[in-house]
Amino acid sequence: MICPCCQSRIASAPTPESLSNVRFGTQGYQLILTLIDAYPRAVTLDRLVAEVYGAREPDWAEDNVRSLVSYTRRKIAPHGWTISASRGRTVGSYKLEKVG
Q1: Domains in the chain and their CATH numbers?
Q2: Residue-wise pLDDT tens digits, 15-71
Q3: Which stretches of 11-93 are DSSP H helices?
Q4: 71 burial class (0-12, 13-18, 19+ CB within 10 angstroms)?
Q5: Which of 11, 61, 64, 98 is the most buried (most CB within 10 A)?
Q6: pTM (predicted TM-score)
């Protein structure tokens, strides 16, 4: 797979099936599906909140999604993936990255 931004070679995105032995809750599963769908691009915090909560977004949704990202990052690390927080002009964004 070639990165659409920098044209460098990148790993293929994990599939939901490749992470089938990882236990995610409903919200964690929605988060990882959103990140897989966007791979290799970053996903804004606002979009993750919308995908995880839909129209029933509570006041504390952003904080909860940040915690969910941290929890999910630990769950996928043994499978060679991480979730990085983007910096610079896309602050408040997250993306999947292959480790190693």
Answers
A1: 17-98 (1.10.10.10)
A2: 766 777 888 889 999 999 999 999 889 999 999 999 999 988 899 999 999 999 999
A3: 26-38, 45-53, 61-76
A4: middle
A5: 61
A6: 0.81
Give the span between the Cα atoms of 99 and 14, in whole angstroms: 12
For residue 4, pLDDT over 80 is answered with: no
CA distance 31 to 38: 11
Pairing of strands 81-85, 93-98: antiparallel
> Within its chain, how far is the Cα of 71 from the centroid?
11
Do 79 and 19 contact (CB within 8 A), yes or no? Answer: yes
Token pair of 39 as six digits: 């791979």
Beta bridge partners of 66: none
Displacement of CA 19 from its chain's centroid (Å): 13
